[in-house]
């Protein structure tokens, strides 16, 4: 029977103690401690019903069954897949014995787990640079004090470091940015502060990154459009624009648990290719990732990519006087609309204190977008919320946000 671990913030060494990377031992289930706390019965059910696959780690992704937080889809990753990923990343980064990884990602995600495997393979040291819940100042101090040479962050963490004006430690030679698209303007701002950012693309199903900007890209400040594939992976783009991947780090299977039963299946095709939900294009220099299909909606018949609208709204917020010296979190949701197809709504969450007028903010944003956004990309409504629902890696849970914005009266039918 698999063993369940729910590693909290910081570096939980139990992962190193419980999983034998040299042989196929008992399987391990890595779960978000908040999920275990909220749904203890579901956690126990997962431990009891997930298949006994020797040499595997089960990692959760967003649930599809029941659409509820308690319903998760589990990805089974073999020891061999995790090692193949780590070996390819180490080769790409030129990792050497004696280096230090500054660790600041959740261990129940492949990003955090992958660092441990890479360090084990290369003989590197791992420094707990998070020290608990994420704090950019604490991470910066610990990474600098440890002489960290490598790190992996998500865009939200990089944004926090840049917003705080923190310069990269002199020892740091590469910072892999994954778990979401790296906005080119954020990349430029980070590079200006010395952060050696390497944009990457990967999935839980591929045990971490399969395409990463080369070290040579650090000679320039701009963010590469296409990312070279790592040695262990192949990619192609299907007719509908979706990225397919074949790699030695691919998952073994999916498992979903519903009504006391575990449903297990292999999403790979007969030829070993796994089709993702990401849109992209192949170039001579590598893979260009254009975003999740689920984050693309139609407005007035035109395709709109929500992260692009979000990035524009963030630039507006940084210049808006009413939001100056405030801690701002924002996200864009698309609500069904009878005439437009979808209505773009900007949700804003502010730190405690006097709240600016939503009407004033909406008018300010409207004026900003007149010169910066195409008509179908413009936000139609601004809403104040207590907080933006996010995953532990900082990704917006758009479906949940949309449900909060709809309200009991249903979607608005604004003109």
Architecture overview:
The chain is an alpha/beta fold and 415 residues long. The chain folds into 2 domains: 289 residues, ANL, N-terminal domain (Rossmann fold, 3-Layer(aba) Sandwich), CATH 3.40.50; 107 residues, ANL, C-terminal domain (GMP Synthetase, Chain A, domain 3), CATH 3.30.300.30. It has 11 helices and 21 strands. The strands form 5 sheets. Strands 1-2-3-4-13-14 form a 6-stranded mixed beta sheet. Strands 6-5-7-8-9-10 form a 6-stranded mixed beta sheet, sandwiched between helices. α4 packs across α5 and α9 packs across α10.
List the keywords.
GMP Synthetase, Chain A, domain 3, 6-stranded mixed beta sheet, alpha/beta, single chain
Alpha carbon gap, first and last residue: 57 Å
Give the helix tally: 11
Q: Report the portion of residues in β strands.
A: 25-35%
CATH topology of the largest domain: Rossmann fold
Q: What is the strand arrangement across the widest sheet?
A: 1-2-3-4-13-14
Q: What is the number of independent domains?
A: 2
At a glance:
Helix content is 28%, strand content 28%.
Layout of SSEs?
Blueprint: E1 3-5, H1 14-18, E2 28-30, H2 33-38, H3 40-49, E3 56-61, E4 73-78, H4 79-93, E5 100-103, H5 110-122, E6 125-128, H6 136-146, E7 150-153, H7 155-163, E8 174-177, H8 184-192, E9 197-203, E10 208-212, E11 233-237, E12 242-247, E13 253-258, E14 261-265, E15 274-283, E16 286-292, E17 296-299, E18 302-305, H9 306-319, E19 328-337, E20 341-350, H10 358-372, E21 381-384, H11 398-406
Parallel strand pairs: 1-2, 2-3, 5-6, 5-7, 7-8, 8-9, 20-21
Antiparallel strand pairs: 3-4, 4-13, 9-10, 11-12, 12-15, 13-14, 15-16, 17-18, 19-20
């Amino acid at each position: 029977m698999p063993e369940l671990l729910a590693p909290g913030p910081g570096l939980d060494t139990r992962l190193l103690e419980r999983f034998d990377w040299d042989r196929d031992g008992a399987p391990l289930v890595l779960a978000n401690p908040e999920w275990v706390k909220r749904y203890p019965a579901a956690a126990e059910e997962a431990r009891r019903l997930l298949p006994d696959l020797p040499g595997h780690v089960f990692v959760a992704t967003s649930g599809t069954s029941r659409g509820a937080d308690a319903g998760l889809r589990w990805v089974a990753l073999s020891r061999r897949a995790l090692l193949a990923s780590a070996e390819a990343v180490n080769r790409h980064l030129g990792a050497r014995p004696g280096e230090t990884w500054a660790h600041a990602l959740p261990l129940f995600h492949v990003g955090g787990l992958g660092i441990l495997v890479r360090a084990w393979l290369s003989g590197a040291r791992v420094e707990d640079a998070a020290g608990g819940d994420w704090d950019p100042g604490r991470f910066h101090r610990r990474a600098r004090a440890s002489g960290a040479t490598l790190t992996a962050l998500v865009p939200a963490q990089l944004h926090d470091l840049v917003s705080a004006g923190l310069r990269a430690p002199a020892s740091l030679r590469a910072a892999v940015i994954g778990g979401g698209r790296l906005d080119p303007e954020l990349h430029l701002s980070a590079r200006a502060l010395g952060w050696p950012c390497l944009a990457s693309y990967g999935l839980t199903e591929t045990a971490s990154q399969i395409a990463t900007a080369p070290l040579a890209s650090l000679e320039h400040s701009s963010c590469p459009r296409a990312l070279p594939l790592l040695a262990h992976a192949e990619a192609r783009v299907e007719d509908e624009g979706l990225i397919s991947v074949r790699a030695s780090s691919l998952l073994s299977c999916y498992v979903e648990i519903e009504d006391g039963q575990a449903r297990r299946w292999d999403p790979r095709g007969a030829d070993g290719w796994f089709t993702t939900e990401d849109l992209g294009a192949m170039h001579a220099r590598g893979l260009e990732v254009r975003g999740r299909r689920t984050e693309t909606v139609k407005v007035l018949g035109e395709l709109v990519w929500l992260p692009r609208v979000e990035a524009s709204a963030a630039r507006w917020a940084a210049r808006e006087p009413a939001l100056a010296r405030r801690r701002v979190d924002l996200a864009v949701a698309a609500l069904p609309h009878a005439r437009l197809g979808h209505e773009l709504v900007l949700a804003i969450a502010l730190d405690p204190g006097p709240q600016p007028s939503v009407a004033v903010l909406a008018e300010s944003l409207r004026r900003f977008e007149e010169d910066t956004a195409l008509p179908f990309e413009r936000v139609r409504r601004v809403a104040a919320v207590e907080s933006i629902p996010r995953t532990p890696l900082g990704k917006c849970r758009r479906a949940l946000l949309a449900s909060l914005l709809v309200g009991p009266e249903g979607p608005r039918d604004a003109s």
